[in-house]
Design a protein that fits this description.
The chain has 417 residues and is an all-alpha fold. It folds into four domains: 6-64, lambda repressor-like DNA-binding domains (434 Repressor (Amino-terminal Domain), Orthogonal Bundle), CATH 1.10.260; 123-214, no CATH class; 229-300; 323-417. 70% of the residues lie in helices and 0% in strands. It has 20 helices and no strands. The two termini are 27 Å apart.
């Protein structure tokens, strides 16, 4: 049984709404509102409207929709204890089955038909863009990225149903656009949880959907995210050709968007991993050109690159290239900027690696402790992965008890994740 949502009911009452009044505002039945408060999940299309009615941010709505834990029932007979990975494995199998279905539907030849006005596809075409944008904002604002998954999973299921319906070529393209958008977000969640293979599968499907939709900028972003998977597995030679294709696709996109400059920034990290200082510098200089774009060159969702992360990316590159002087300058500059907890944890981990590289264990310890605290607070595998790189740099110093202690603390984080 799902837990009740007492916070949701309390928020409704604080705003002076009865269940009937809230239902009227949202265009749903009163019994639907009652079911939400009892623990049943709302459909994806209603979430933006629900957030506006309750006067909360997307992140605040996630908090209100988090059910209370139900009190444990006394078992009649001894019950088997669930394995720690069961929930994650179920989530993984669930999305992989959806990937297979959606991928097949996208690959089918187009057949231009008259769509049903009352079908799932028609509703998604109308409400999907706003909902996807809301989910990206919620993902961005949430300390723990995994909380967004249930809403994404629901919407991915609806998209698969929509693709099964008869529809016009125009409607199909718009659905493919939504698929390409949302599967990138699903991939981000898997990536943040260190599920790189599953993230890569999501990005591959997203790229295929974007190709069908002729959405070149979104397509380039899906390829770039796929390259990130190779990058964080230190397979730089595998990442390079993916980014080369991403750059070619981005050239066919909107020159007023930051897509091509994000590709260049990621290429810089790959060149740094390959030890090519000159190519790294050229790519970083290209990425800096994002600052010359007028207005807002991104949408805050599948494209978020605005150049604000270039200082930390320069630091990462220079650290990989064995230039601690340049790395320290860039990372210290990055740390002085407003950062999300996840990004701050990553910069702290890079500074810890720099301290270990310079054999300054007191400094390394200071940054490791700060990064560990943020990794525990956010549950981010991304920060944990950055800390794993510190262990490599601690290896030559293991005769010092301080280095051994830091190594064990980072390993303990990995064992809990």
């Amino acid at each position: 049984m799902p837990g009740r949502r007492r916070q949701l009911a309390a928020r409704r009452r604080r705003l002076g709404y009865s269940q009937e009044r809230l239902a009227e505002l949202l265009g749903v039945a009163t019994s639907t509102v009652a079911r939400w408060e009892a623990g049943v999940d709302p459909h994806g299309w209603v979430l933006p409207k629900l957030a506006r009615a309750l006067k909360v941010t997307p992140e605040g709505l996630v908090d209100l929709l988090t059910p209370e834990a139900a009190p444990p029932a006394l078992p009649v007979a001894p019950a088997a204890t669930p394995l720690p990975g069961d929930t994650a494995d179920m989530k993984r199998r669930d999305v992989l089955s959806l990937l297979a279905v959606t991928g097949a539907l996208i690959s089918l030849p187009e057949i231009d038909k008259t769509p049903s006005r009352n079908g799932v596809a028609a509703s998604l075409v109308e409400t999907g863009p706003e909902l996807n944008a809301t989910l990206w904002r919620t993902f961005s604002l949430s300390e723990s990225k995994q909380v967004v998954y249930p809403m994404i999973r629901h919407q991915l299921g609806l998209l698969a149903r929509g693709l099964e319906e008869d529809q016009s070529n125009s409607s199909r393209q718009r659905l493919c656009l939504l698929v390409g958008d949302l599967y990138q977000l699903a991939g981000e969640i898997f990536f943040d949880g260190n599920k790189y293979v599953d993230a890569a599968r999501c990005y591959t499907l997203a790229a295929s959907a974007c190709k069908e939709a002729d959405a070149f900028d979104m397509w380039a972003c899906a390829l770039t995210r796929h390259a990130f998977v190779e990058l964080y597995e230190s397979r730089f030679s595998a990442a390079a050709p993916i980014l080369s294709v991403a750059a070619r696709v981005a050239e066919r996109g909107d020159s007023q968007l930051s897509t091509r400059y994000w590709v260049a920034a990621v290429q810089a990290e790959v060149y740094a991993g390959l030890g090519d200082f000159d190519a790294t510098s050229r790519s970083l200089d290209t990425a800096e050109k994002v600052h010359s774009l007028p207005g807002q060159p991104h949408n805050g969702g599948w494209l978020r690159f605005d150049g604000s992360r270039l200082a930390e990316e320069r630091g990462t590159c220079y650290l990989a290239l064995g230039r601690p002087d340049l790395a320290e300058q860039a990372l210290t500059s990055a740390l002085s900027q407003p950062l999300s907890l996840r990004r701050r944890g990553a910069v702290l981990a890079e500074l810890a690696a720099l301290g270990a590289e310079q054999r300054d264990l007191d400094r390394a310890s200071h940054y490791v402790q700060a990064a560990l605290e943020l990794a525990g607070q956010t549950g981010s595998g991304y920060v944990g992965r950055k800390l794993e790189a510190v262990k490599t740099r601690l290896a030559p110093l293991m005769s010092d008890r301080r280095a051994l202690a830091l190594h064990q603390q980072i390993s303990a984080l990995a064992s809990v994740a």
